[in-house]
Every structure is written in structure tokens, then in C-alpha cells.
Amino acid sequence: MNNLLETPIEYLKGVGPQRGELLRKELQIFKYSDLLNLYPNRYIDRTRYYKINQLVDSASEVQIIGKIIHIKTVEFGKGKKRLSATFVDETGQMELVWFQGIKWIRENVKINVPYVLFGKINSFNGTFSMAHPEMELLEEHKASLRSAMQPIYPSTEKLNSKGISNKVVIKMMQQLFVETHVLFAETLPTYLVEELQLLPKHLAMFNIHFPKSQELLSKAQFRLKFEELFFIQLQLISKNLIRKHKIKGHPFDKVGDYFSTMYTHYLPFELTNAQKKVIKEIRNDLGSNAQMNRLLQGDVGSGKTIVALMSMLIALDNGFQACLMAPTEILAAQHFNGILELAKPLNINIKLLTGSTKSSERKIIHQELEEGRLHIIIGTHALLEDKVKFHNLGLAIIDEQHRFGVEQRSKLWHKNTIPPHILVMTATPIPRTLAMSLYGDLDISVIDELPPGRKPILTVHRYDSNRLKVWKFIRDEIEKGRQIYIVYPLIQESEKMDYKDLMDGYESISRDFPLPKYAVSIVHGQMKPSDKDEEMRRFSEGKTNIMVATTVIEVGVNVPNASVMIIESAERFGLSQLHQLRGRVGRGAEQSYCILMTGNKLSNESKTRLETMCKTNDGFEIAEVDLKLRGPGDIMGTQQSGVLNLQIADLIKDKDILQLARYHAIQLLKKDPGMEKPEHQKLREVFIALGKKKNIWNYIS
Ligand SMILES: Nc1ncnc2c1ncn2[C@@H]1O[C@H](COP(=O)(O)OP(=O)(O)OP(=O)(O)O)[C@@H](O)[C@H]1O
């Protein structure tokens, strides 16, 4: 059976080399099995026939039985022609119109013979018309293998224009089922099909293409969505299990002085329960024989830095080194300053390595690192350079992981003979469903509470016309000793215009908030790193009241005294970016504010984003809205994974099915990690074949 499904598509009756080439190029359909996995993206009820006097403007596609009583060629425009026919049934008449294939239509269309018409209606001044309708003689229509609901397949303009219409795809599918008598072998274990009352595979495949009823269609969709997500979860979870069993990690079973001294004497604040919970989860991972691969999710300002430090101290207590890699120099410097401050009493050697580290300093760092005299190193991708050699790297922490490509992570991975334990931190909350798919091969820890005393940031939307009032508010806040961020979009595609906006903004703010009463810093991506650091330092030391910046400060900058975030042209930012920027304030005990400035013209989507920001501070809730607005494909980091090449499931609409699939995949692998039991044989075959076809995650090179 399977080799029949491997037949190249051009051998299917009615396809041939030309159509085969088109299907390959346009829909990546190479062989029979690819065509079978081309699932319809919607269905049309073909049991419903309209009378002409029942037509209404909003009816999208309709079916009508009637006859053509008259047909003529009409000239319009410069020598352009169209074919116009009068189509009637017992209740009225309408016009049919063709702009192409006029000759063929004239020669083949029959007058006064009952036809079934199918297509989209247009209406103009109460009269109805249909352009390029699908037409079938009534007796043929009744004889054809037509299911109650006609599938509408994903198609392309090019396919249509080259004669591969939806109707042709349906005929191919019918031919495929005839040629292969496709009796699909059941791929899921019988106990699972029975427990979940899933439609058997072959019935699901038949009813997804030729649904016999709405109920059977829904069951077929559920079964195939479950199966697709189930295999993905099997791959992700088994990768996790394989890693746990195969890749030994250094067991950090010693709770030493660094960790306990810090924990008992030098914490600047009481840890939140969430921070304690996560540190415990990390501790357990590090103490086990397996290599840790954990994703730490924590909303902006939730206190991930202290968790990272405590994890690194466990590595140091067990005689190993630790590193933290961040995506930007500003974030690396921020982590370095934060960790240096926190760890000051412990007298450990911590250094920062970025692209702008002077070569003299770099040499010392390389030497200390290789000799094991440098305990913790924090940096950017500079850590990945071959010259950077560790004495014995035990723990690698990667911040904002989705910005690092897979190859960069694996480079860090291979700095040692035994790979280090890995802790991935992301401040961009990823909706649970996406996290289960994108990071399904990692264990996940969530810091789901903010430090005590934090007041939710008050967020408001103001138009540019309210600027004077906003400026007055800023003066009042500065009077109280607070500091202000004013952020401009500097987005690649219109860099020149945005850059001008930023500089104009900086000029006008320096004018409106003049020295000596006020002092303004500026930071953007085109400045020299040393200048950026200097400006950031002046602001964080309170030497300037206002920081004019671009999104380069979006992640990780921590100035607890800054209480106002003004975001200019806020309608141009995505939700997660707005949330990250807002998270730069609200990090102290003072009431903080976020003011979203926009022009008057706003798209509906922009309005939804602004309303969401004003409504909630919860990063996870915001991420859900963001996922709905932008779809999983746009969320940072998804491009690297194959998990989103879904054929039929939808990560947003099918999150319940995803959770069910993940649950059963975990249960199955708990009982039979190698899928060796007799009832899992077929499953195992499909699992291995799938693993070869689309490797869900090349996370471990
Ligand atoms: N348990 C706590 N109690 C009080 N303050 C805390 C606590 N944990 C962290 N903080 C403080 O909250 C601020 C934010 O901490 P941190 O920078 O670690 O957050 P974060 O999760 O890294 O935020 P971001 O993702 O925005 O970088 C810091 O000033 C830190 O000192």
C-alpha cells in the first residue's frame, strides 16, 4: 500500500507531466500521498439549491438549476469582448458572464437544456449575475460521486489560470481513491481510537475529502487534527526523554557555600513563591543525572535575574563555570550589572564579554576562562567565538532564546565534551499552546507572580493633539524625582524617516525640557556601543531625567526609578513589543504609567492592540491576543521550528486538541518510551517515517 502512495503524481489518471509540474511548483504535491494530505480548507453544502427569486446579496456561493435561453457576445472597451447569457428558472432570470474562453463556451454550452449552476453571485440594482460559473448538465450532476459538502481545496491563481480548478482537484481526488482503493491502515493504537471514540483512519480520510454528513466531517477533522498533533508531541516529548536518558549532565548534587550564603544572608529581598518554586525545579534538574533543558518563562519585571544567579551559584558550588548569553549588548550589560551587584558579597570573578570589549581585556578574559579562574561570564554572541574556551562549563543560560538560531545554541552546547545544563529564559510570554509546540522538548517553568508592592502600570492611549497635557504630566513626575522613557519606532523598513522622527523628537524634547532644570539622554541602535553604554549609565544613575530611545531598550533594561513610559507612534508596534517596552517601568514601588501616543488614523488591528494594552498588564493574556492577531507563524522563533508546517491542525483554534494530544503522548511514552509494545508497532513505523520527513526540531545537532 505504502509504495502505491509513493507514486509520482503525474502518473495519476488525468494529471500527466504538465499538471504534475504545476502541482509540484504551486502546492508542493510530488506524489499520491501528498495529494491525499491536501486537506480542504472549507466546504460548501451542495445539497442546497436556490431559486433565482431567493437570491440575496450576501449569499456567497450558490447552486441554481435552470436553463440558458439566450447567449450573445458583447463588445466593451477597446475591442474587448465578453459573453453574456440569460439564465432562467421558473422564478426569474439572471445574467451569466464570461471574459475568457468565450469561443469554447459558445461551442459547448447548450440552449434550453437543464444545467446546475454553481458560483459566486454579484448583484447590481437588484439584478443578479454570475461570472465564470461552474456548469454541469443536470443529469451528469445527479450521477456524479458528489458528497453533500463539496470540498474547497487550497489553490492558487496560477493553478486556476492553468485549468486546475477546484473541480479538477476534486476529480483527481476521486481518481486517487478509485486507483488506490485507499484503505488506510490504522496508525493509532486501538485502545486510543476506542477510548477517544476516534473515526478509524480510512473513514476519516474518506470523509475529509467526501464528507457524507456534517457530523462525519467533524469527526474526520477531529481525528486527523488529533493524529497530526499527537505525532508532533510524541517527537518533542521523546526527544526530551532521549536527552534525559542519553545525554548525561553533570549532577550538581552539592548545595554549597555560594548558594546557601547568598540565599540566607545576601538576598536584597524576600523571594516570591514563584521564584522559590522555579529555583527548586532547577535545583532538582541540576541534581539529577540528566542534562537540564528548561525554559524559564517570566513576565517582564518578574525577577528572572535572581533566579539565573542562584542557578549559576549551584554550578559554582559544584566546581563548574557558568555563562549567560543575551541577544543585545545593552541586555548583556544589564544582566552583568545586576548580577555583579547581587553577587558582590560573594567575591566571585564575573566578567562581561561583548563585541565592544577591548582586546586587551578580552585576552585576560580568555585566559582566566580557560584556566578556570573566571567563574561567571556574561555576554552576547561573542561567547560563541571559538577563541572563547571554558575550563569546565557546567551551566549555560540563554536569555531571549528565540532570537538565537539553532546553530548558535548548539555552538554553545559543544564548548565542552559533556554539554552543559541549559536554562533558556524568555521574557516574551509565549502562549501555552505555542510553548507546548515550540518548546515541547524542554521542561517549562513559569514565574507567574510579580514581586510584592508592585502597582499595575496604568496605561492610557493619547492622541498627538493631547501632547501639551502629556508634557505637563511628565514635568509633574520629574518634579517628584521620577524618570521618563520616551520611545520612538526605528523600524528597519522606513529607517530614514523613523531616524528623522527620532532626532526631531530629541530636538523638540531637549527644547521643551531645557537644561539646567532637565537633562535628556538618547540611545539608539546606530550609536557607538560605548556611547550607548554611557547614555544608559547616566540615566540609570539618575544624572538625566528623560531617556529618548528606540526599541533597542525593549528587553531587560532595569531602572526602578523610571516611572513613565511614553511610546510614540504606538500604533506601529506589535503587542509583545509594546508589552516589553512598558515593562521597562513599574519595576519599583512607585506608581508607574505608560502613555501610548498615536495619530488619529488607526486601523482596527491597531485599535485592538491599544485596547488590549490599556486593559491588561498580564503578558500571557497579551500573548494570546497577539497570537490571534498575528497567527503562530509570525511569533518570533517559530520560523526556526518545523512544528508549524501543519497540514490540518491550527495551533490557535485547536488548542484543546493539542492539550489532549500532549497528554496522551506523555501517557504512552511513560508506559512504553521506545514504542516497542505490539500495539504500538504501526505507530512506531509512522513515527520513524515522520521523523525522517519533517524533523520537528533540529534542536540537538
Ligand atoms: N522577589 C522580589 N522582591 C522584590 N523585588 C524584586 C524581586 N525579584 C526581583 N526584584 C526586582 O525587580 C526588578 C526586576 O527584576 P529583573 O530585572 O530580574 O526582572 P526580569 O524578569 O529580568 O525583567 P525583564 O524580563 O524585564 O528583564 C529588579 O529591580 C529586581 O531587583
UniProtKB/TrEMBL annotation:
Its catalytic activity? ATP + H2O = ADP + phosphate + H(+); Couples ATP hydrolysis with the unwinding of duplex DNA by translocating in the 3'-5' direction
Record-listed E.C. numbers: 5.6.2.4
Which GO terms label this protein's molecular function in UniProt?
DNA helicase activity; hydrolase activity
SUPFAM superfamilies xrefs:
Nucleic acid-binding proteins, P-loop containing nucleoside triphosphate hydrolases
Q: Read off the InterPro entries from this record.
A: ATP-dep_DNA_helicase_RecG, DEAD/DEAH_box_helicase_dom, Helicase_ATP-bd, Helicase_C-like, NA-bd_OB-fold, P-loop_NTPase, RecG/Mfd, RecG_dom3_C
Q: Which PROSITE patterns match?
A: HELICASE_ATP_BIND_1, HELICASE_CTER
The record, for SMART domains, names: DEXDc (SM00487), HELICc (SM00490)
Pfam families documented for this protein: DEAD, Helicase_C, RecG_dom3_C, RecG_wedge
- Recorded family membership: Belongs to the helicase family. RecG subfamily.
Q: What is this protein called?
A: ATP-dependent DNA helicase RecG
